[in-house]
Amino acid sequence: MSLELKIPPAAVMLFFMVLMYFISSVFSSLNIDFMFQMFLSVETAVSGFVLIVAASYVFNEKGTSINPMKPESASTLVINGIYKFTRNPMYLGIAVILFAWLIFLGNILNIINIILFILYMNRYQIIPEERALEKKFGDDYLSYKTKVKRWL
Fold it and tell me: What angle (nearest 5°) sits at the alpha carbon of residue 120, between those of residues 99 and 15?
């Protein structure tokens, strides 16, 4: 059974947040505290939420589906707004929020979990979405892919 497009990205984020908390608890001797840690964590999380909201706004403005489980239901290829800079601003926003969680927890081992999140999203969410968008929008999507990077 394939995991492609099966687990909602928000659930994947929650899984990694719990895993990161567990790692920080088990390896608490590696946790570090530093000045402005909470401030930096909150500011980073806000940046991630802003990416997600900006991406959602453009989808809503174009009147197309935002459902990550059914990319074939997209009615419009969105390439403006935040999508001029990254093809996956919502997933980038989640990664930024996970990085904020890393800062908050203060355990550098959790960088591994952010890398695993990115690898998981590439394999089981983004690549299947790209196949569906290529099928639906053809050369327009292929051209967009050559101009804008998957993450940054």
Answer: 60
Cα(77)–Cα(73) distance, rounded to whole angstroms? 11
Contact yes or no for 109/23 (Cβ under 8 A) = yes
The answer to whether 124 touches 3, Cβ cutoff 8 Å, is yes
- The Cα–Cα gap between 58 and 75 comes to 13
Q: Going by C-beta distance under 8 Å and a sequence separation of 6 or more, which residues neighbour residue 138?
A: none
Tally of CA atoms within 13 A in the half-sphere of 107 that contains its CB? 20
Q: Measured in Å, how far apart are the chain's first and last C-alpha atoms?
A: 31
pLDDT tens profile 107-140: 999 999 999 999 999 999 999 999 999 999 999 9
Instruction: Express as a percent the part of the chain with pLDDT over 90.
Output: 97
pLDDT at 1 over 70: no
pLDDT of 87-108, one tens digit each? 999 999 999 999 999 999 999 9
- In a 3-state reduction of DSSP, which class is residue 150? coil
CB 75 within 8 A of CB 65: yes
- Reported residue count of the chain is 152
Place of tokens 């402005």: 36
